[in-house]
Design a protein that fits this description.
With about 450 residues, this protein is an alpha/beta fold. It has three domains: about 90 residues, Rossmann fold (3-Layer(aba) Sandwich); about 200 residues, UDP-N-acetylmuramoyl-L-alanine:D-glutamate ligase; about 140 residues, Protein-Tyrosine Phosphatase, Chain A (Alpha-Beta Complex). Helices cover about 30% and strands about 25% of the residues. It contains 14 helices and 21 strands. The strands form four sheets. The protein has a seven-stranded mixed sheet with strand order 8-7-9-6-10-11-12, with helices on both faces. Strands 16-17-21-18-19-20 form a six-stranded mixed sheet, sandwiched between helices. Strand 14 and strand 15 form a beta hairpin. The longest helix is centred in the last third of the chain and has 19 residues. The termini are far apart.
């Protein structure tokens, strides 16, 4: 299929972060883009403002005629009326990952995989390349604060940066020149039968790196890739002993400064523009990819401090001397652990209240013990009901199975409607919201309430 010869494309589940980037891409090429999503969100409203037609009722009669291609997300339930109609039609239909593979495989591709960190790493790489003589296009898994978009387009660079998602084995559609694996923790066990199956699919992703290409992996994962011979294999970590690492790490005004070391070279006095030790680790592999793509030391030193991060990744909502509110997409025990630990390193003596909305019944069931341990790092914990996303309820699975395993006595479960009132009665220095569901819709109300109460205290 020749992508550039298409005229009308229909997106089933257009509001997803990966789907919307593709929709923007085709819309930018001048094609007619139409889509369905079950929920109106700020992102779908933005797409409509950009000229994309979207409807919110599952109704096949609203699908336009003369469609050249249907692109769908695997998150769409098979019972969806439009999905059933389209699969029975003669219209070509492809998953989002297949189309991303078709686009990226014609370019020099940097693909970032990993159960955690891939959105931050891929967005940082794209920023470093865009601010250099290299440039790039990028399909991102989050909204870049620097560009206010999840799509970056270059009219002259052959490089493209993509997020290689392990969900539904999407990353197996990619054949990158530079492959990155940031982590391989158990996750998506609703898709993979067990952890070994997940790891074997990451291994297959690595095997799909182009001959004489490069694979960058976090230190500790090497044993999974020792059989790979036709590529360059590099490791990275926070500490020396790997191919890429940092030294002389210092926290200055809540920002980390460090030296970046690789091979026989060192780039001194770098400042990271986003907070958190976890993001120092993310920056190491982003810098490694940028260097391998040809970004110069001078360009790196100039651009790294200007990187503003991603919406809902260590995302400050309030940051004053007396009150800090940070929102994060963390929805896996390891992500929560890394996020909370990074916050505690910046604010070692502050009382932290964490609000967590579990995402998926299956993930809650599979990792209840691990969630409890990570949440126990907080001084006070509020759990919201599970956000089901694509899943139907599983008998006996609710937020209570995490709640019962949390050792702290400073814990409670509440509904979303009760949350603001409960926060108002809580005592804390720092408040964190965490989750991949619709907890993002609560961020603004929480922020407005905190600022209102803060003004009342001052007055």
């Amino acid at each position: 299929m020749k992508i550039n010869n298409l005229h009308t494309i229909y997106f089933l589940g257009i509001g997803g972060i990966g789907m919307s980037a593709l929709a923007r891409y085709f819309n930018g090429l001048g094609m007619q883009v139409v889509g369905y999503d079950k929920t109106k969100t700020p992102l779908t409203v933005q797409l409509q403002q950009e000229g994309i037609q979207i409807h919110y009722q599952d109704n096949a009669s609203q699908i336009p005629k003369d469609i050249d291609l249907v692109i769908y997300t695997p998150a769409i339930p098979k019972s969806n009326t439009e999905f059933i109609y389209l699969t029975k039609s003669n219209i070509p239909i492809k998953k989002r990952s297949e189309v991303l593979g078709l686009i990226s495989n014609e370019k020099k591709t940097i693909a970032v995989a990993g159960t955690h960190g891939k959105t931050t790493v891929s967005t940082m790489i794209a920023f470093l390349l865009k601010n250099s003589n290299i440039d790039c296009s990028a399909f991102l898994g989050g909204i870049s604060k620097n560009y206010k978009s999840n799509l970056l387009v270059s009219d002259h660079s052959d490089w493209v940066v993509v997020e290689a998602d392990e969900f539904d084995r999407s990353f197996l559609q990619l054949n990158p020149d530079i492959g990155i694996i940031t982590s391989m923790d158990a996750d998506h066990l609703d898709i993979y039968s067990n952890f070994e199956s997940l790891k074997s699919n990451f291994t297959q992703f690595a095997e799909q790196v182009k001959t004489n290409g490069t694979l960058l992996i976090k230190d500790g994962l090497q044993s999974n890739f020792t059989h790979l011979k036709d590529l360059q294999l590099f490791t990275y970590s926070l500490t020396e002993g790997t191919d890429f690492y940092v030294s002389n790490i210092q926290l200055k005004n809540n920002n980390y400064c460090f030296d970046f070391v690789y091979h026989d070279k060192i780039i001194q006095d770098l400042t990271l523009g986003i907070p958190g030790l976890i993001n120092v680790e993310n920056s190491i592999v982003a810098l490694a990819a940028a260097v391998l793509a040809g970004v110069t030391e001078k360009e790196i030193k100039a651009s790294l401090p200007l990187f503003s991060g991603i919406h809902r990744r260590f995302d400050y909502q309030v940051n004053t001397k007396d009150l800090v509110f940070i929102d994060d997409y963390a929805h896996h025990p390891e992500e929560i652990k890394g996020f909370v630990n990074s916050v505690k390193l910046i604010y070692p003596d502050k009382k932290i209240l964490g609000i967590f909305q579990p995402h998926l019944f299956s993930r809650t069931r599979d990792f209840a013990d691990e969630f409890a341990k990570s949440l126990d790092m907080l001084d006070e914990i509020i759990l919201l009901p599970i956000y089901p996303a694509r899943e139907k309820p599983i008998e006996g699975v609710s937020s209570n199975i995490i709640f019962d395993k949390i050792q702290s006595e400073n814990k409670l479960i509440c509904s979303k409607s009760e949350l603001i009132q409960i926060i108002s009665k809580s005592s804390f220095d720092i408040i964190l919201t965490m989750g991949a569901g619709d907890i993002d819709q609560l961020v603004l109300p929480i922020k407005e309430n905190l600022l209102t109460e803060s003004k009342q205290i001052v007055n």
